[in-house]
TrEMBL record:
The protein's name: Magnesium-transporting ATPase, P-type 1
Organism expressing this protein natively: Gordonia defluvii
Reaction equations catalysed: Mg(2+)(out) + ATP + H2O = Mg(2+)(in) + ADP + phosphate + H(+); ATP + H2O = ADP + phosphate + H(+)
The organism's taxonomic lineage, starting at the top: Bacteria, Bacillati, Actinomycetota, Actinomycetes, Mycobacteriales
Family annotation (Pfam families): Cation_ATPase (PF13246), Cation_ATPase_C (PF00689), Cation_ATPase_N (PF00690), E1-E2_ATPase (PF00122)
Domain of life: Bacteria
Gene3D superfamilies xref list: Calcium-transporting ATPase, cytoplasmic domain N, Calcium-transporting ATPase, cytoplasmic transduction domain A, Calcium-transporting ATPase, transmembrane domain, HAD superfamily/HAD-like
SUPFAM superfamilies reported in the protein's UniProt record: Calcium ATPase, transduction domain A, Calcium ATPase, transmembrane domain M, HAD-like
Gene: mgtA
Cross-referenced InterPro entries: ATPase_P-typ_cation-transptr_C, ATPase_P-typ_cation-transptr_N, ATPase_P-typ_cyto_dom_N, ATPase_P-typ_P_site, ATPase_P-typ_TM_dom_sf, ATPase_P-typ_transduc_dom_A_sf, ATPase_P-type_domA, HAD-like_sf
């Protein structure tokens, strides 16, 4: 098999793509395609794949790529305001003062480097974290199966897929074993589409290309191999993505940030232009006035906000990773902190997940060892999704050394989440039989008769109540039950869903899957933290109720899938709040429940790992999956746990709240300081006969006050901030900005008056004093505003304290240092320094007093509100708090 290597392959692939050699590949014989792509039965060689990678990467669909470091560095200097500032500075150099220009540029570069270093660190951190949970594809290279990241799959690769896998590229089916793809993400079609080898006409619409696996769709059942013909932008999915600019839905945090950023930007533009005009009207020097206004814009601009927020979120992600939870979307951390309801799957999360077959029983509950043989045919011959129930049966068959009589599968109706049954047409010692097993109700529904322990049969109608009583009593002991049924089908060679009728119920299998010992405690901890835990399972009512009891949930507050079907969305919306357990659900039920819960105003988390959980994961405000889960589930989630462990999720959530609280601290403090400065500058520009600060001084203040901001992510958070869900609250933020901004302006103006009237300060002395005062007040106030308690009662983190002290010392020392003259700063008389300190103390005290008035009024009521969905008891369904915007605003 001539597998091509080296640049020749690379060239051929590029040519194939460019010349559309592989146009409508679904209509071409696979041999021809493989030849065109340089592939053979052993797949590509590793060398050929490596050679093709750059061309493939270049055509990757947008997204996920890490920006090159130099590009990241450049972006620090490419915002319009910075560019205008740099040009104006160069201009001022040409017109006169080169020294000033160089100093301004130096500070701009230093600030840019500081931001770059942080952002770069954040990007590297995220890359490392995501590496652990990035999906991989199974490809054949040099005849060996290897796992490679999705973005390293190249045209010509042979891939192998099985249940739950996402197709990493467009690929033509080579072999298929009952392969069915869920193409809903592409076509909206919710029924899985069967896939088989064999060309289809070139003109076949997407839905009819039965030999094409489409990038982004996932395997609903079965397995197969396929030849990759297109990747990235060249795939159907890539094209759709490009045309829609398809983006995942924005989080509440992103929406809040965007709106707030816009608000600030507008405010800034208006003020800066006004200040510039005032300066011109007052006949100040044009260039100086322009530089002053531009520097103000740089100092006040919120464009640094997203960067610093991103940095503190990525630090948070690293801290969360310590609890073995990986954050896939940074902004979801806010939703994590805001979560009020957590819904989870049962198996593996609430239970230990190591399912064990306990008993094989006849319909009356008496032991029936030979049932294991029938069940064994079904479980060991099935080729669909691997799953723990079949594994448990196979294990029991092996350990009891049951003889399967050389049975062989003729055909199969794979398991699906709606039918909840799995049927195999078997050629065994008793001839050709259809063996069906599945959840009790769905199997009973297709049985006409039951087989009694004595070997005789009876109509289902007369036996049903008896069977249900047995199932109920097993369920009450926490047993998961499967029903097994058969039907002789001597004359057929294939089977379908329609053959699942008129079966004879053979017996029941009881599985033990005990509740995790710490699950109940963790659920209680979540409840104390304001998060109601809810269980949503596909399993039957009796066992769900039993497990609910074990977990401390209310077994009476239960809703089944069939009951959900009877409710329309509105009725479901008003019912979900009081329900603690949802059982007998299909994937669609899970999704509807989550949507209904989000509709009540709750911030809903959903944790699940199966294909059947993917729709619910997408519908939730935050999806949580587990490493090793089906690709579709992992893709739909914004958090991935490395182990299925509820306690670590609790810790991760607390860390999420801490991160959110610190991020909000920064936003609250920076915006109020900026707003205050804008107002002060506007006033100063009007009343002073000279500029209150020079451009280089403003930029230096900006740099010095940014230093402690970089340490905010490390800060401690007051305990009560972590006790309840928190969410973004624009109204409180704007009020905070106005109140504390104005307080700081009042003190700025007091400083003006004292300097001009009391000290008769001239230009340089005034600017030097104001430089020192600006830095000191802005730093001191961090310690007041970072907590709602009196500031001396809440300890800041050491890095924050350290950075703040260093910045303050630099600021005070600068006028006395050799650097001073470069910034036009002159040493201040001792009396003036003392006075500045008095002003700083006065400012701190005033802010502290204002804070005491500000927080109780706006925040305390929010703090005592409860989550919309409550823990036990479930009877009185209170409507309180069912609005968006609950939860406690920060800091
Ligand atoms: N391979 C199988 N063969 C037969 N029946 C099955 C199989 N897998 C699952 N079932 C039946 O379908 C029910 C629902 O299982 P499913 O995996 O769809 O639900 P789930 O919501 O993921 O459940 P859980 O909460 O336990 O994880 C199971 O309780 C079982 O009765
Ligand atoms: Mg499951």
């Amino acid at each position: 098999m001539a597998t091509d290597t080296g640049p020749a392959h690379n060239e051929r692939v590029t040519r194939a793509i460019d010349s559309q050699d592989v146009d409508a590949p679904w209509s071409r014989p696979v041999g021809e395609l493989a030849a065109a792509l340089g592939s053979g039965p052993a797949g590509l060689t590793a060398q050929a794949a490596a050679d093709a990678l750059p061309a493939t990467r270049a055509r990757a669909a947008s997204g996920h790529q890490r920006t090159a470091w130099w590009r990241l560095l450049l972006t620090q200097f490419t915002s319009p305001i910075i560019i205008i500032l740099i040009i104006a500075t160069l201009l001022s150099g040409v017109l006169g003062d080169w020294l000033d220009a160089v100093i301004i540029l130096t500070i701009v570069v230093l600030s840019g480097l500081l931001d770059f270093a942080q952002e770069r660190g954040a990007a590297v951190t995220m890359d490392g974290l995501l590496g652990a949970v990035r999906p991989t594809a199974t490809v054949l290279r040099d005849g060996q199966r290897v796992e490679v990241p999705f973005d390293e799959v190249v045209p010509g690769d042979l891939i192998a897929v099985s249940g739950g896998d996402i197709a990493p590229a467009d690929a033509i089916v080579l072999t298929a074993d009952d392969l069915e793809m869920d193409q809903a993400s592409l076509t909206g079609e919710t029924f899985p589409a069967p896939k088989t080898p064999g060309e289809v006409p070139a003109a076949a619409p997407l839905g009819d290309r039965t030999n094409l696996l489409c990038n982004g769709t996932h395997v609903a059942s079965g397995s197969g191999t396929a030849l990759v013909v297109a990747t990235g932008r060249d795939t159907e999915f890539g094209r759709v993505q490009a045309s829609l600019h398809a983006r995942a839905r924005t989080t509440g945090f992103e929406r809040g940030m965007t709106r707030f950023g816009l608000l600030l930007a507008r405010l800034m533009v208006v003020l800066v232009i006004a200040i510039f005009i005032v300066n011109l009207v007052l006949h100040r020097p044009l260039v100086d006035s322009a530089l002053f206004s531009l520097s103000l814009a740089v100092g006040l601009t919120p464009q640094l906000l997203p960067a610093i927020v991103g940095i503190s979120l990525s630090r948070g992600a690293r801290a969360i990773a310590k609890h073995r939870v990986i954050v896939k979307r940074l902004n979801s951390i806010e939703d994590f902190g805001a979560m009020t309801v957590l819904c989870t799957d049962k198996t593996g999360t609430m239970t230990q997940g190591s399912i064990h077959l306990d008993e094989a029983l006849a319909v009356d509950g008496s032991p029936r060892p030979d049932l294991l043989r029938i069940a064994g045919w079904n479980a060991t011959l099935q080729r669909g999704l691997r799953n723990p129930l079949d594994d448990a049966i196979a294990e029991a068959v092996a350990s009891a050394q049951v003889d399967l009589g050389g049975a062989r599968a003729v055909d199969e109706v794979p398991y699906d989440f709606n039918r909840k049954r799995l049927s195999i047409l078997v050629d065994g010692p008793d001839g050709r039989v259809l063996v069906t097993k599945g959840a009790v109700d769905p199997v009973l529904g297709v049985c006409a008769q039951v087989r009694d322990p004595d070997g005789g049969t009876r109509p289902m109608a007369s036996a049903r109540t008896g069977v249900e009583t047995v199932v109920e009593s097993l369920g009450a002991r926490g047993m998961r039950i499967l029903a097994v049924a058969t039907k002789p089908m001597p004359a057929v060679s294939s089977c379908s869903v329609h053959d699942e009728s008129n079966l004879v119920l053979q017996g029941l299998l009881a599985f033990a899957d005990p509740v995790k010992p710490d699950a109940a405690d963790t659920i209680e901890e979540f409840a104390k933290a304001g998060v109601a835990v809810r269980m949503i399972t596909g399993d039957a009512h009796p066992v769900a109720a039993y497990i609910a009891g074990e977990l401390g949930l209310d077994p009476a507050a239960i809703l089944t899938g069939p009951q959900i079907d009877k409710l329309d969305d509105a009725a479901l919306g008003s019912a979900v709040g009081g329900v603690q357990v949802f059982c007998e659900t299909t994937p669609r039920h899970k999704e509807r429940v989550i949507t209904a819960l989000t509709g009540t105003g709750a911030t809903v988390g959903y944790m699940g790992d199966g294909i059947n959980d993917a729709p619910a994961l997408r519908a939730a405000d935050l999806g949580i999956s587990v490493k090793g889960a089906a690709d579709v589930a992992a893709e739909a989630a914004s958090f991935v746990m490395l182990e299925n462990d509820l306690p670590s999720l609790l810790e991760a959530m607390r860390q999420g709240r801490r991160t959110f609280a610190n991020t909000m601290k920064y936003i609250y403090m920076t915006t109020s300081a900026n707003f205050g400065n804008m107002v002060s500058m506007a006033v100063a520009a009007v009343v002073l006969p000279f500029l209150p600060l020079l451009a280089s001084q403003i930029l230096m203040i900006n740099l010095l006050t940014d230093l402690p901001a970089t340490a905010i992510a490390t800060d401690q958070v007051d305990r009560e901030r972590l006790a309840q869900p928190q969410r973004w609250n624009l109204r409180v933020l704007v009020r905070f900005m106005l109140v504390f901004g104005v307080v700081s302006s009042v003190f700025d103006i007091v400083t003006f008056v004292v300097l001009r009237r009391g000290f008769h300060a001239g230009e340089t002395e005034f600017q030097s004093a104001w430089f020192v005062a600006s830095v000191l007040t802005e730093i001191a106030v961090i310690f007041v505003l970072r907590t709602r308690h009196p500031f001396w009662r809440s300890r800041p983190s050491s890095p924050l304290l350290g950075m703040a002290v260093v910045s303050a010392i630099i600021a005070v020392a600068m006028p006395f240092s050799p650097v001073g003259p470069f910034l036009h700063l002159e040493p201040l008389p001792g009396r003036l320094v003392g006075l500045l300190l008095v002003i700083v103390v006065g400012y701190v005290v005033t802010t502290e007093v204002t804070k005491a008035f500000f927080w109780p009024r706006s925040a305390t009521p929010a703090m005592v509100r409860r989550p919309a969905v409550r823990q036990r008891p479930a009877r009185s369904r209170s409507r309180t708090g069912r609005r968006r915007g609950r939860g406690t605003p920060s800091p």
